[in-house]
Amino acid sequence: MQRRTFLASAAAASLAAPNLARAAGSSVLRFVPYVDLAVLDPVTNTNAITRTHSFLVFDSLFGVDEQMQVQNQMAEGVVSDVDSKDWTITLREGLRFHDGSPVLGRDVVASIKRWGARDVFAMSLMEVVDEISAPTDRTVRFRLKSSFRLLPDALGKLSPNMPAIMPERLAAHTDPFKAVPELIGSGPFRFVASERVPGARVVYEKFHGYVPRPTGRPSLTAGPKIVKVDRVEWLTMPETATAVAALQSGEVDWLETPPPDLLPVLRKDKRIKIAVHDSTGQVAILRFNCLIPPFDNQALRRAVLRAVDQTEFMSAYSTDPSLWHVPMGLFPVDTPMASKAGMDGLFGKTDIARAKAEVAASGYKGERVVLMSPTDHPVNGPMANVAADLFKRIGLNVDQQAMDSGTMFQRRNSKLGLDKGGWNVFPSAINGLGQLNPADSFLARGNGEGAWYGWPTSPRTEVLHAAYLQAATEVERKKICADLQVIALEEAPSIPLGQVVSPTAYRRDLKGVSNGFPRFWGVSKD
Questions:
Q1: Helix (H, G, I), strand (E, B) or coil at 93
Q2: CATH assignment of the domain containing 159
Q3: Is residue 483 a part of any domain in this protein?
Q4: Structural domain of residue 193, as residue ranges?
Q5: Are 409 and 39 contacting, i.e. CB atoms less than 8 angstroms apart?
Q6: Is cis: bond before 382, omega within 30 of 0?
Q7: 338 vs 5, which has greater pLDDT?
Q8: Same domain for 487 and 370?
Q9: What is the pLDDT of residues 302-319, one digit of tens each?
Q10: To 10 degrees, the CA torsion angle through 410, 412, 413, 416?
């Protein structure tokens, strides 16, 4: 079915379906994500929508609560030696995949190895791994070449790429740079592939074979994941007014990111609740391709960074300053590792004359600059438009190429030149929960072609990143983070644009919506 055909029939179907569902004794939660789910594999991409999807379908060995403490999840227990070099994880009994097969130690080993080839935190772990094995069906052993105290933190991380556990037959036989042929997890919901309509609808059903943790309190990705609805439908609605109207009429239950200009309308509707459930918000950036001209030139990247007025960028998202924070450096504002290090004289009003002179002095020769511009994204779209205008004003030969987010998420993988579909710069709105510290943040790496899109090489960054992983005190960690920020602003693989704090909107008969990114266990409909 084509997206246009689906949407044409959706208005009638969405009204009729709830009655059918109630008659059958089942409940359906309808959710409008901020952008279409284009990438399904939890390992192959770092966009937040894929992370949110992945936590429905897959489970992880450990979870993280709202205090950022790691808790056992699929793991029943974990022990390590005094040097944190030998770890054994025991799996809970009764864990099963959606295809009915039991979750075994060898599934975990294969999943971790595949994830370890893509995720930045995982790469740090894999650098010190001597061997990962499954001595029994319910145990996994890590033998490390050196101490790694953060092993549970890595295996339970909140941010993309999710450390998803999947069957060995998929994890061991699928290139980590290619998508798995089917989505089989052991999470609380089952992905219904037959009902997916790309660009329009994604469907999940309660997995009746899921075994929640028997103890603890639900908090972020930790604790018992108790499902209270039978079915979750994600409905993509690029037209924001349509999405708001659907929420008001009851055709949908939850709108992930309501448009800022329509928030006053929603706030007047007593049937709708507006709340900020994730205070870390989204870290908005521009990301340069450091492999090809012209942004393989650090002096040019720095000149562009020095031209950025963060308030100008954030105001393009919303004129309401309560929905964003500036100035922002490498880490989200008002989080433990945030600082003003290296930010003197940056991110205020743009001095066009100075910026033009610095661009010219960098050696820029008028090369074409391909800026990927996702028109359907509520944050990245406005950021791209402001960037295009700024680039023109400071003398760059900008080629702003409009596309949807799914296309951008795929195209940014390309390391090829512009004549072969490559790119120079793209905007990204990264979930703040994944940027709280260098262990988890892919913006705090400079490991060349193993780095996040843009692939910067920075030996100084890598030395400090390694030091952070071994730091014993909070004072040491904060000093390292300040030094990392100074380097990031000097070498400019990315430009921080500000921190967006987007509220979410849902109908008041929806109960159990909790802090953090959207999770669908624990949520019920009256």
A1: coil
A2: 3.90.76.10
A3: yes
A4: 1-35+188-278+505-526
A5: yes
A6: no
A7: 338
A8: yes
A9: 999 999 999 999 999 999
A10: 120
Q: What is the pLDDT of residues 221-240, one digit of tens each?
A: 999 999 999 999 999 999 99
Across 495-504, average pLDDT: 97
Q: Is the CB of residue 274 less than 8 Å from the CB of residue 77?
A: no
Query: Does 2 have pLDDT greater than 70?
Result: no
CA distances from residue 330 to 33, 110, 300, 429, 492 in whole angstroms, order as listed = 27, 33, 19, 13, 11
Q: How far is CA 412 from the centre of its chain?
A: 15
3-class secondary structure, 354: helix
Give 427-490 as a DSSP string. Answer: EEEEEGGGGSSTTT-GGG--BGGGSSTT--B-HHHHHHHHHHHH--SHHHHHHHHHHHHHHHHH
Among 419, 429, 422, 335, which Cα is nearest to 382's? 429
pLDDT at 25: 59
359 and 303 Cβ atoms separated by less than 8 Å: yes
Which has the closest alpha carbon to 205: 29, 19, 12? 29
Instruction: Give CA–CA dist 104/511, Å, rounded.
Output: 35
Q: Does residue 355 sit in the same domain as residue 482?
A: yes
Task: Classify each residue of 412-426 as buried b or exposed e, where b means 16 or more C-beta atoms within 10 Å of its C-beta.
Answer: beeeeebeeebbbbb
- What tokens were used for 219? 């908090």
pTM (predicted TM-score): 0.89
Name the residue type at position 358.
E
Q: In the predicted model, what is the mean pLDDT of residues 404-430?
A: 96
**Cα dist. 399→121, 368, 372 in Å?**
34, 7, 9
Kind and range of the H or E element at 241? helix 240-249
Q: How many CB atoms lie within 10 A of CB 2?
A: 11
CA distance 497 to 501: 13
Structure tokens at 28: 């359906």
Phi/psi of residue 504, each to 5°?
-115, 160
Count up the domains in the chain and report the number: 3
Q: Which residue has the tokens 């609560």?
A: 65
* pLDDT value of position 182: 97
Q: What is the pLDDT of residue 26?
A: 78
Query: Taking Cα atoms as reference points, which of 152, 186, 148, 244 lies closest to residue 42?
Result: 186
Do 303 and 413 sit in the same domain of this protein? yes
